[in-house]
Amino acid sequence: MADGKLFVVATPIGNLGDMVPRAVECLQSVDLIAAEDTRRTGQLCQHFDIRTPTRAYHEHNEQQQSTELVELLAKGKNIALVSDAGMPLVSDPGYRLVNCARVAGIEVSVIPGACAFVAALAGSGLPSDRFTFLGFPPAKKQAREKWLESIAFSTETLIFYESSHRIRDFLNDLQSVLGDRQVCVAREITKTFETWLCGSLSEVQFRMDSDSNQLKGEFVVVVKGAPESNGSAVEIERYMKAMMQELPIKKAAAITSDLLGARKNDCYQVGLKIQDRD
Predict the structure, then answer these.
(1) For residue 208, which of 190, 185, 188 has the smallest C-alpha distance?
(2) Does residue 228 belong to any structural domain of this protein?
């Protein structure tokens, strides 16, 4: 008996009109749909007259279900993997199943479609030639600030997901760690109340604080990367480490900035990392 095939299928992130015909045909024809939330996928299936059975596949049962689903695939069953919205595996479960299928020699086919961070990048007006998608930031402030410090020198565009109950705190931390950079906050992409707020971080925060509706929903935050520094990260660290033996961190950062032509804030952030290590 020939092995079945695993299909990784993108679903709409809001507007059901974004469901591609090939995805509908696939979900109608497979033997089983592995879904992050069977209730949510059930609504999608009802809309498109998809009568295929569903099975829950989420972060809490991913390991066990991956084994069981690969066994079904090995018996010739065709299975589709979907998440609640958008592309599976992008800040969603699915990696283990795809990996197990690949290891078992089972064919994997991807049916592309909507993806929130790609849509946000395309509409942001920020550089798109180089970017890093970082998913959801750490939930707690101290861990989040340390995490942001680790990417403060990244010169490519940075893309994050964030929830409504943390968006304000996250934007505050972005500004305090990265500075008042250009940003685009895309809210509820493809949904009824979709909005795009673009400008400096301080401008966007002011607009959000002026309209409480802008704090509701699901967010993609696109941030312009750090400017190219005249001093390399290695040079900045070497200078800062030497001067911090005799000088306060702010004074060391100011002198390093003058000597290397680097941004003072970049030098200061390196100093903070040195302090943490020591």
Answers:
(1) 185
(2) no
Inter-CA distances, 37 with 22, 32, 43, 109, Å:
21, 14, 10, 21
The domain containing residue 212 runs over which residues?
117-223
Q: Measured between alpha carbons, how far is 106 from 98 in angstroms, rounded to an integer?
A: 9
Residue type, 107: E
With beta carbons less than 8 A apart as the criterion, state whether 239 and 259 touch. Answer: yes
| Pairing outcome for strands 131-133 and 54-56 | unpaired
Specify whether 75 is located in the same domain as 165. no
Instruction: Report if pTM > 0.90.
Output: no
Instruction: Tell me the pLDDT tens digit for each residue of 26-36.
Output: 999 999 999 99
pLDDT tens digits along 143-186: 999 999 888 878 899 999 999 999 999 999 999 888 899 999 99
